[in-house]
Write a structure and sequence with these properties.
alpha+beta; 19 helices
Length: 764
């Protein structure tokens, strides 16, 4: 072990003193590995994020005991919306000085006091929150700390209200309920799986590339070591020290990138999810695994890469033409990966996941592993069949025929990233198409529903009066919903005048004393019996009853068509007021349908402000406010970020290709100078460099599109989503790859010009 450490340390010292080329190689390696390490650290933080959120959610959950007495906290949960954002909170009233204190607050807010989250405080203080301030007239006495929030952008509050009683709300004996670990959405889980695996392979590829870059300069150092007596095995260990240095630098760069980017994570919201900076902390076992695995991979890859290299005291010899590559075993990873993913088809597409994440990850790894394994065979067989053409083409093809492995390995990393990017973007494109092609039902934007939590005749009358005086309100229609039990099944009857009932169902004709049934709630084959006229059913006297105590006879009714695809429509029994005159007013709860002018700006906010004096007793729902464009923009932003990440990795691969091209020009400067002196135009030599770079990258792109598209199809089958390939993204990546070849070639021309000069004919 001491000999290994000594040899690796010597390799590190030689790499640091190897001149400008060694520093360029080190910077390239550090950048490539650093990007992968940063992503791996972010992925290893997912478990911490979920665990911390679950801990805070459990700490903020109230423990309810309606029979408790003493210093308890009476609480009512309430929610409202403001321009598409949801605001949730609790109205509370302490029954004594030792009542439970809500998490994140310093005390129980008194009557007329409120604690708000930082995001809600910022909104209320901004010009955009002017309309919202009418809903929260309480005095802000503090902000809710992190322990009372799930995410930095949560908009929550705790407001003191002396009208909250035991009968109206919950009796909270303490905060800190049972923890419920949250599972990721199947689509998000697959995105993380593909992203981590797609960026893990380039780490391996970039480490392997470092053993092949600046080969001439390194070969001279290794030969010198052999000349002074170093054994062949020791020379390989010293060469592996250079890769180890690149891996260590990559670890440092990756950690720096991760912790620098982490500072901005609270400003990022993806699909409405945000994360605290402190939550984005890598899991300690996974962080240690990354810190150990990356250097080990570097050393092992470097040693394996030199298995065909013979280092002698007077030079380095690479074993010439290797054994002809065979195809069958190179297809095994792809076949096994596809078979593994096929076994999980539909497993993550339902409400309950029945698949195995391990099998999915293994299938993804095998499919992406098949790319760098298959690519050398593809390049070798393709260039081996090419004949004829212009002199520049023949020079490039002959060079690739002599040594195609290095070029295939260089572009193998970018092919893996492109395939992973294609799969990721296709999954996102499919999810986006679901939002665009199958939007939410079109709601009647002229109606708002106000639900009353304490529906007494007095509160109903007060709410109707407030709404009638509101800006933009045209008509107000009270509706009453009576819950009843038939056998072991629960139903409801909607009570309202004919004018009101016509707003929620298509009625053929109506007069007081009529009854209707909209057959959606319990259709044929549902296993639930239909309510029949004349049946005696049990009715709940109020919302607090555990079992119904009243009796009611189902009236004769007329069957009507089911409701249109509208969230404001109702189903079940529709009855006019005279049919329930024997039931007390406390039976059932009330909601108010409000007819508004949909063209008036912020009409829903004006209605919500109108019922603000009702505080926790009223909640206004406006389905016409749902705007799909915001969610589509979020999907598009994620796809653009993925595309940008793929382009950055493509640029990194381009840097690798550039260093390789420059090194090959240096190694071949004497043959190139002889060709130029023999009359071969420098333009032809420049074009040969172009074809030499373009052919492997084009073949890598074809393989990446094929494997990435197949992976996307298999993943979409797993989550039961429509098959959608992101052709615009594939086109952008293909165009970027073509541009990359041109740029690399142009940057290689100055080195080519120097190599083809008269001084290139000199030899020692």
């Amino acid at each position: 072990m001491r000999r290994w450490l000594t040899d690796l340390a010597l390799g590190v010292r030689l790499a640091l003193g190897g001149g400008r080329t060694s520093w360029v190689r080190l910077a390239l390696t550090g950048a490539g590995i650093g990007i992968g390490v940063a992503v791996l650290l972010a992925a290893s933080s997912v478990t911490t994020v979920l665990s911390e959120r679950a801990e805070r959610q459990a700490a903020a959950s109230p423990v309810i005991d309606q029979s408790a007495t003493g210093d308890v906290l009476h609480s009512v949960f309430w929610t409202t919306d403001y321009r598409g954002d949801t605001i949730t909170g609790r109205f509370v009233d302490a029954a004594g000085p030792n009542a439970p204190v809500p998490p994140g607050t310093s005390k129980v807010p008194g009557d007329g006091e409120i604690f708000v989250s930082p995001a809600l405080a910022d909104l209320l203080a901004s010009p955009d929150g002017e309309l919202l301030r009418e809903r929260f007239p309480q005095e802000v006495v503090g902000t809710i700390g992190r322990e009372g929030l799930n995410a930095p952008h949560d908009m929550v509050f705790y407001a003191g209200d002396s009208t909250v009683t035991r009968d109206a709300g919950d009796v909270v004996v303490r905060f800190g309920g049972e923890r419920h670990d949250r599972t990721l959405d199947p689509i998000l889980s697959l995105l993380i799986m593909v992203g981590v695996v797609a960026l893990l392979f380039p780490v391996l590829v970039f480490v392997g590339i470092t053993t092949r870059l600046a080969g001439a300069e390194r070969d001279r150092r290794l030969a010198a070591l052999r000349l002074v007596g170093a054994g062949a095995q020791r020379v390989r260990r010293i060469a592996a020290g250079e890769a180890l240095l690149g891996a260590v630098v990559g670890l440092a760069v990756g950690a720096a990138l991760f912790f620098a980017a982490r500072q901005f994570v609270e400003n990022v919201r993806l699909l409405g999810v945000s994360v605290f900076v402190g939550d984005l902390t890598p899991s300690l076992p996974l962080a240690v695994l990354i810190a150990v695995l990356v250097p080990v991979m570097a050393v092992v890859t470097a040693i394996v890469a030199m298995r065909r290299t013979v280092v002698e005291p007077l030079g380095v010899v690479r074993r010439t033409k290797p054994v002809r590559r065979v195809l069958w075993w190179r297809l095994v990873p792809i076949a096994l990966g596809a078979a593994a993913l096929l076994t999980q088809a539909g497993a993550f597409g339902g409400a309950v996941s029945s698949g195995s994440a391990e099998i999915v990850i293994g299938g993804i790894i095998l499919l992406l592993l098949g790319i760098p394994v298959l690519l050398p065979w593809v390049v070798e067989r393709t260039v081996g069949r090419l004949r004829g053409g212009a002199p520049s083409w023949q020079l490039a093809i002959r060079r690739l025929q002599l040594e195609s492995g290095t070029a295939a390995r260089v572009v193998g990393g970018v092919a893996v990233v492109l395939a992973g990017g294609i799969a990721l973007q296709s999954v996102m494109a499919s999810a986006e198409s679901e939002v665009v092609d199958r939007p939410l039902p079109e709601a009647d934007r002229s109606r708002i529903s106000v639900v009353l939590q304490e529906s007494t005749p007095e509160t109903t009358e007060q709410t109707v009066g407030l709404l009638q005086r509101s800006v933009g309100v045209e008509r107000v229609h009270p509706l009453r919903t009576v819950a009843f039990k038939l056998g072991e099944d629960y139903y409801s009857a909607t009570v309202g005048t004919c004018e009101v009932l016509r707003t929620v169902a298509a009625l053929p004709g109506c007069a007081d004393g009529d009854s209707f049934h909209v057959g959606v709630e319990s259709g044929p084959g549902s296993g639930r019996p239909e309510p029949q006229p004349g049946q005696r059913v049990s009715v709940f006297a109020d919302d607090q009853e555990q079992e119904p105590s009243l009796k009611w006879t189902v009236p004769a009714f007329t069957e009507v068509a089911g409701p249109v695809d509208d969230p404001m429509s109702v189903s079940g029994l529709l009855v006019t007021p005279s049919l329930v005159r024997d039931l007390p007013a406390s039976a059932g709860h009330t909601r108010v349908l409000v007819r508004v002018d949909p063209d008036r700006p912020d009409i829903a906010e004006h209605v919500r402000n109108a019922v603000a004096p009702m505080t926790w007793r009223a909640y206004a729902a406006y389905f016409g406010q749902v705007d799909l464009s915001d969610r589509v923009k979020e999907f598009q932003s994620i796809r653009q970020a993925l595309l940008a990440g793929s382009l950055v990795t493509l640029l990194l691969a381009g840097a690798s290709l550039l260093v390789l091209a420059l090194e090959q020009v240096r190694e071949r400067r004497r043959p190139l100078a002889v060709l130029a002196a023999s009359g071969v135009p420098r333009g032809a030599l420049g074009r040969s460099l172009l074809w030499q770079n373009a052919v492997p990258l084009l073949l890598a792109l074809v393989v990446a599109v094929g494997v990435g598209g197949g992976l996307a199809v298999l993943l979409l089958r797993i989550i039961s989503q429509p098959i959608v390939l992101d052709w615009p993204g594939i086109g952008v990546l293909s165009g970027a790859a073509a541009l990359l070849v041109v740029v690399v070639t142009l940057l290689s021309l100055p080195s080519l010009r120097r190599a083809t000069g008269a001084l290139g004919l000199r030899s020692e």
